[in-house]
Every structure is written in C-alpha cells, then in structure tokens.
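Researcher: Next entry in the queue.
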Amino acid sequence: MGTLNNRKIAVLSESGFEESELTSPVQKLKEEGATVHIISSKPGTIQAMKHDREWTIDVNVDKVINEVSPADYHGLFIPGGVLNPDALRKNDEAVAFVQAFYEAGKPVAAICHGPQVLISAGVVSGRTLTSTRAIKIDLINAGANWVDEEVVVDQNLVTSRGPKDLPAFNEKIVEEFAKIDVTASASMT
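Model: Structure for this entry, 189 residues:
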C-alpha cells in the first residue's frame, strides 16, 4: 500500500509548464498511491516546455476547472514554468480554486514560478516561501519572507525553487499530503 492511498490530488496547470516540474511530482504521487487529476481551463491536452525554450510533450487534461470543486480533493499542486503560472493567475476560477484550498487548510504545493499563483490568490503575506530567484522580489513585495532553500513548508504551503530540487520537493509533498485526514474531506469520484 502506498503512502498516499485514498488521497486525491489536484494538479492545476495550463500549457507552458516546465516539463519535469509536472511529470516528476505527478509520477511520485501516483507511485505513492494518490489519485491525481490534471486540471486546466480547457479540455484536451496541455503542452510542456523545457527550460522555457522549447515545447515538448502534451499531457492529457483530466478535468476542466469549472467541472470540479476544491472539496473534491485533499491537496493541490501547481507546477512552475514561466507561461503556466502567468496564465493561471489571469484566470479568476483558478485563483479562486487556490484560495479555497488555502482557506480550507488543505496542502498547497508550488514549485519554481508556481508561487506567482499564490501571490494572486493573496495567500503569501506573512508566510515563509521559496521559489526561483526570478520571482523572489514579487514574493517579498507581496509580504512573504523569501528564503533560498530547496523546499519550505509553512503551515499548509509547500514551495520549492526548481528542477534541481525535485527529489526533496517530491519527498516533502508526499509527506505533507500523507498528513491529510482522508475521512474529513474530498469525495473519491
């Protein structure tokens, strides 16, 4: 039995996510027994980028954001990449989705540029986070305490810097998602 059996995790993404920052955590979550749904604004597929330079693989979208509720999931993961978080934070439904997880006290994990969505959701003020250096000042200006560490947990927020930190990030999200009381929330539909 996996550490995350009976846990349902939402992965919120648009095209332009950094390939490894979605595929590596999703693989780890599934290996640990979690049910994982890729959620986006449109059905079909979303496309990955590698190092923000070249388009790579397509990933199937499992659910469209207007078809789901945060109550359906135990936790949320937001991959990075330059284009993905920028598209998400312009989407009111996506921002509200993130806010709902945060307000419910459910774990919210974000890597690299992913914490930009947390800024738009208004959940970073007074919290200690990490990210890619490219958005360090954005997090500080939004009231976060930014630190240069491979992975940081502050209450229900889990953040990481980027691809080189994926092993530590993957282990930490499994640990944090494993703490979820599965009897308290999320339908398994």
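Model: DSSP finds six helices and twelve strands in the chain.
Researcher: Noted, moving on.
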